[in-house]
């Protein structure tokens, strides 16, 4: 099915500039207080990592993460995650030391505060890539749940050690928020890449929708609590760069939730009844994926902008 295949590859092209658009909005809203230089690479790393999370947890949606095609996708995206995370860590060290990226050495990663979580996340990406490549040749050894756990660790290590993670209860709040967002976005992206035919969508989409509604609820609740912890007053939502990015991210999530709800009212019943073909389902999924990427870009910028 060339049309669907072309669309599936297209999201990889479209999600990256969409994420960078979110980062660019952060710069417009918060300059000169943030975000940091590593935000664009961080946004790419997050997009790749959450898709890997979705691919490695496809069994929840009735898929099979150990199929050769899926393992190849996992290996490729884990590789993208590794490279992007390494670049982000490198640029982050350069920013914190006040040096040019070209003059940053390996010793700087040890000395600079905050570099260790970034390196752990990079190591997780490399480990998942190695897992996927080995499993391509030794499918009987495949344990996708282990790869999903390592991916979750790689996604969490940075946010839980960030500024919100220093608050009482902050690490748990951040972990729940990140995992809910990561699975919601990553699962839909992985479906767009792997689900085949009307029957496949009739199986996977209802399962996804059932879990996704809980992810959205968790995102909303944890987001509200996080805003109260981070900001001293509602006025900071407009008077500080961090607050303006947080407001933009919240607005982006609200738009995304409305789009998701609107799509589900027509897409889910049609897919369940086998009335919607594969191409249409892929296109609908990719609309949401691109919107998600913009919000991910905003989240990446928010994570590298210090509260004023």
TrEMBL record:
The species this protein was found in: Williamsia limnetica
Transmembrane regions listed in the UniProt entry: 12-30, 42-61, 73-94, 114-135, 142-160, 172-195, 207-229, 241-261, 282-302
Keyword Transmembrane helix found: yes
Domain Copper resistance protein D: 205-302
Subcellular location: Cell membrane
Record carries keyword tRNA processing: no
Pfam family, one: CopD
Keywords, alphabetical: Cell membrane, Membrane, Transmembrane, Transmembrane helix
Protein name, per record: Putative copper resistance protein D
UniProt cross-references to InterPro entries, sorted A to Z: CopC/D, Cu-R_CopD_dom
UniProt GO BP: copper ion transport
Source species, domain of life: Bacteria
GO cellular component: plasma membrane
Topological category with respect to the lipid bilayer: Multi-pass membrane protein
């Amino acid at each position: 099915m060339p049309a669907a295949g072309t669309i599936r590859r297209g999201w990889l092209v479209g999600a990256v500039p969409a994420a960078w658009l979110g980062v660019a909005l952060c710069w417009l809203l918060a300059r000169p207080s943030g975000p940091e230089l590593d935000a664009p690479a961080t946004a790419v790393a997050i997009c790749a990592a959450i898709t890997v999370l979705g691919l490695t947890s496809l069994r929840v949606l009735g898929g099979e993460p150990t199929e050769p095609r899926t393992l190849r996708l996992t290996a490729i995206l884990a590789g993208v995650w590794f490279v992007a995370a390494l670049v982000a860590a490198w640029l982050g060290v350069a920013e914190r030391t006040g040096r040019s990226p070209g003059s940053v050495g390996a010793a700087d990663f040890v000395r600079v505060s905050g570099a260790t979580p970034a390196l752990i996340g990079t190591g997780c990406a490399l480990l998942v890539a190695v897992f996927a490549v080995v499993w391509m040749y030794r499918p009987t050894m495949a344990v996708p749940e282990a790869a999903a756990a390592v991916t979750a660790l790689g996604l969490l290590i940075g946010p839980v050690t960030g500024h919100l993670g220093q608050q009482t209860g902050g690490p748990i709040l951040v972990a729940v928020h990140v995992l809910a967002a990561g699975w919601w976005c990553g699962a839909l992206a992985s479906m767009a890449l792997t689900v085949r035919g009307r029957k496949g969508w009739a199986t996977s989409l209802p399962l996804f929708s059932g879990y996704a509604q809980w992810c959205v609820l968790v995102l909303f609740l944890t987001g509200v609590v996080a805003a109260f912890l981070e900001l001293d007053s509602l006025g900071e939502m407009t008077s500080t760069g961090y607050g303006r990015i947080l407001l933009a991210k919240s607005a982006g999530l609200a738009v995304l939730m409305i789009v998701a709800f609107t799509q589900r009212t027509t897409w889910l019943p049609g897919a369940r009844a086998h009335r919607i073909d594969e191409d249409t389902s892929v296109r609908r999924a990719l609309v949401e994926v691109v919107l998600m990427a913009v919000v991910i870009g905003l989240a990446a910028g928010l994570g590298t902008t210090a509260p004023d």
